């Protein structure tokens, strides 16, 4: 395996884990990236409710 690639994989694993102080917020942090998608879906539902004017 390429040594630089192994370093990047280890770096991602280190950055992916929250610090101990924020560990209780992990479930919330897991959901946060979905919020923009929900806003886009809300825009489609809103436009469908007003017949895409």
TrEMBL record:
<dbReference type="Pfam" id="PF02533">
    <property type="entry name" value="PsbK"/>
</dbReference>
<feature type="propeptide">
    <location>
        <begin position="1"/>
        <end position="16"/>
    </location>
</feature>
<keyword id="KW-0472">Membrane</keyword>
<keyword id="KW-0150">Chloroplast</keyword>
<keyword id="KW-0602">Photosynthesis</keyword>
<dbReference type="GO" id="GO:0015979">
    <property type="term" value="P:photosynthesis"/>
</dbReference>
<keyword id="KW-0604">Photosystem II</keyword>
<dbReference type="InterPro" id="IPR003687">
    <property type="entry name" value="PSII_PsbK"/>
</dbReference>
<protein>
    <recommendedName>
        <fullName>Photosystem II reaction center protein K</fullName>
    </recommendedName>
</protein>
<dbReference type="InterPro" id="IPR037270">
    <property type="entry name" value="PSII_PsbK_sf"/>
</dbReference>
<comment type="subunit">
    <text>PSII is composed of 1 copy each of membrane proteins PsbA, PsbB, PsbC, PsbD, PsbE, PsbF, PsbH, PsbI, PsbJ, PsbK, PsbL, PsbM, PsbT, PsbX, PsbY, PsbZ, Psb30/Ycf12, at least 3 peripheral proteins of the oxygen-evolving complex and a large number of cofactors. It forms dimeric complexes.</text>
</comment>
<keyword id="KW-0934">Plastid</keyword>
<feature type="transmembrane region" description="Helical">
    <location>
        <begin position="25"/>
        <end position="46"/>
    </location>
</feature>
<comment type="similarity">
    <text>Belongs to the PsbK family.</text>
</comment>
<dbReference type="GO" id="GO:0009539">
    <property type="term" value="C:photosystem II reaction center"/>
</dbReference>
<dbReference type="GO" id="GO:0009535">
    <property type="term" value="C:chloroplast thylakoid membrane"/>
</dbReference>
<comment type="function">
    <text>One of the components of the core complex of photosystem II (PSII). PSII is a light-driven water:plastoquinone oxidoreductase that uses light energy to abstract electrons from H(2)O, generating O(2) and a proton gradient subsequently used for ATP formation. It consists of a core antenna complex that captures photons, and an electron transfer chain that converts photonic excitation into a charge separation.</text>
</comment>
<keyword id="KW-0812">Transmembrane</keyword>
<keyword id="KW-0793">Thylakoid</keyword>
<keyword id="KW-1133">Transmembrane helix</keyword>
<keyword id="KW-0674">Reaction center</keyword>
């Amino acid at each position: 395996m390429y040594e630089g690639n192994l370093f990047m994989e280890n770096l991602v694993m280190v950055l992916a884990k929250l610090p101990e102080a924020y560990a209780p917020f992990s479930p919330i942090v897991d959901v946060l990236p979905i919020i923009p998608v929900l806003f886009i879906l809300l825009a489609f539902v809103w436009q469908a409710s007003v017949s895409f004017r």
